[in-house]
Write a structure and sequence with these properties.
Layout: E1 24-36, E2 41-60, E3 69-92, E4 97-104
Antiparallel strand pairs: 1-2, 2-3, 3-4
Length: 105
């Protein structure tokens, strides 16, 4: 609302960009689990990869154009990971079980 006229108004904060599009994410994930010695020793391996492209970026421009920034697709973000787990059952009876796990990421 305009403080002088008390009338509602709208403003355009940044110019239109006809070339802007959706961000795109591609992800792949795979893994394997195995047990040995009647599952007294178990092994787990997971591998993942994720990549996002066309991330929105705000490019600041001279305010003499009437806008503070121009928005466009230009960023990329990628990440990869490996998760390795090993569990050993140390002691087991009918009423008690003790296991130990180690994890590397």
């Amino acid at each position: 609302m305009d403080s002088f006229t008390q009338l509602p108004y709208a403003t355009i904060s940044n110019p239109a960009n006809q070339d802007i599009g959706w961000e795109t994410t591609k992800m792949i994930n795979g893994g394997i689990d195995a047990g040995f010695f009647n599952n007294c020793l178990t092994f787990s391996l997971d591998i993942c990869s994720k990549k996002t492209t066309d991330i929105f970026i705000n490019q600041f421009i001279n305010s003499a154009y009437g806008f503070q920034f121009l928005q466009f697709n230009g960023g990329t973000l990628a990440g990869n990971g490996v998760d390795l787990g090993l569990t050993g059952r140390i002691f087991k009876t009918n009423q008690f079980s003790w296991a130990s796990t180690i994890n590397f990421s």
